[in-house]
Amino acid sequence: MKTKQIAHLENYSGTILIPVFETNLKSIIPIKFEDVEISSKVFYGKKDTHYLAEHKGNTYIFIGLGKEIDYKSIKTIFRRIAAKEVESFGKNVVLFIPEQFNPELVEATISGLLLGTYDLGHYKIKEKHPFLGDHFELEILSNNDYSITINKAIKIARAQLETLGLVDLPPNKVTPKYLANWAVDKGAKYGFEVEVLGLEACQIQGLGAFLAVGKASQNEPQFIIMKYEPKESANNLKHVGFVGKGITFDTGGLNIKTSGMLQMKSDMAGGAAVFGAIQLIADLQLPIKLTAIVPCAENSVDNKSFLPSDVISSYSGNTIEIIDTDAEGRLILADGLSYLIKNFDPEYIIDIATLTGSSMGTFGDECAALFTNNEAVSKKIQETGDAIGERLWPLPLWDAYKQDIESDIADVKNYSGKPLAGAISAAKFLEYFTQNHSAWAHLDIAGVAFGDDEFAKSKHATAYGVHLLTKFIEQL
To answer: 257, 380, 402, 459: which is the annotated catalytic residue?
Structure first.
């Protein structure tokens, strides 16, 4: 999407988008824009409503914002307009920006409009959304110059669109190799280094926990390492590490899932969030050093499957007793975390994963579960999430839960065996492999990465985490 600013609508012909703050149903003062008036009896700016009017050949779309607005609401409102009013858009579209808008709301508006071009029908014959046309240019009617904000908003949406596609595409398309190729291509385009460890390289490195998960699949596992530094490198850059779960499909292994398998193409949503975040961070050229690891594997079933009661090795040198092969995400994250800490030693570490149904049972689809022993990190990432509508809430990492991962035969076990405190015991397992890192956080996004909303008939990706991780880094 390209944009340009205009100062007036003289001789303009096309569609005009007009955000409107709520008045009230009984207001005697109509909603007015230019020489178009709308009676409050038919439209008064109520949130999640909009009204179309035709006047002198132009289409006016009045968009209700409600009385109080926030980033997420604005983004959703304008995504809805872009998605649901496609037939109203032609070659010329103008967005009017009210004086009450600040840069954050402008960012949310533009990102929402571009996200509204997303269509889940990847394999359908369809027409391209007008906003994606080669010659389309969204005109911005405002007295203020928002060009920097708008450019950033477009980059945010593009990264989120990439993530939506990665998660929603089917598992016979998005294999570990597909994700490795994606990383290499985007690294070349946006300017970050990519190293991919294939099967033999992972064996040489001793990534035993990671390899155990992927060994039953015909699709070779790929351990993807991405490194970013700004083109204009500065001294004393803070170093952040990301680890994302990249299970491209999860059958549960020999502890095969008895329900919910249809959605298990989404089990790489944490990894996809890391992919989208590093694209965005590199695109924005943020002044940060970033190392991101996404271990990618398919948890499948055949005669090579790892077994319940197996004892496997890990990159850290610790042994792991396998209680449940469906607790596989924490195994690949354990090796990812260990590899990151040993070889790169970042100041801050965040891992992100669709890890447990327990977190979903606790929070539903309202927020992610946050685990960290660093109060400053906890506060900062929660504030960041609240600001953009990607919310988190902390759960404890008390030592009382250590018993859930204690094993008689190995250093640690991968599952408590109890239908209780599942998200917490999983986080305690990961903590075991962080070497007591002082600024590590674990985000369990099982309930927020893939779900239902108005933009498709079936469950689909949300791109949760892309903006959250990026904005967290911006504020370090």
So the answer is: 257
Residues facing residue 444 across a β-bridge:
353, 369
Residue 25 has a pLDDT of 77
CATH superfamily placement of domain 2-145: Leucine Aminopeptidase, subunit E, domain 1 (3.40.220.10)
pLDDT of 357 over the 80 cut = yes
| pLDDT, position 233 | 74
Q: What percent of the chain has pLDDT over 90?
A: 96
Question: In CATH terms, is domain 168-474 a member of 3.40.630.10?
Answer: yes
For residue 250, the one-letter residue type is D
Whole-number Å distance between alpha carbons of 314 and 156: 36
DSSP secondary structure string, 125-185?
--PPPGGGSTT-EEEEE-SS--HHHHHHHHHHHHHHHHHHHHHHS-TTTS-HHHHHHHHHH
For residue 342, indicate whether it is catalytic: no
Cα separation of 389 and 382, whole Å? 10
Best CA proximity match to 357, nearest among 300, 421, 314: 421
Task: Name the one residue in this structure whose structure tokens are 């699949």.
Answer: 217
- The question of whether 257 is a catalytic residue gets the answer yes
Q: What is the predicted pLDDT for the residue at 29?
A: 84
Q: Which residue is catalytic, options 158, 265, 330, 428?
A: 330
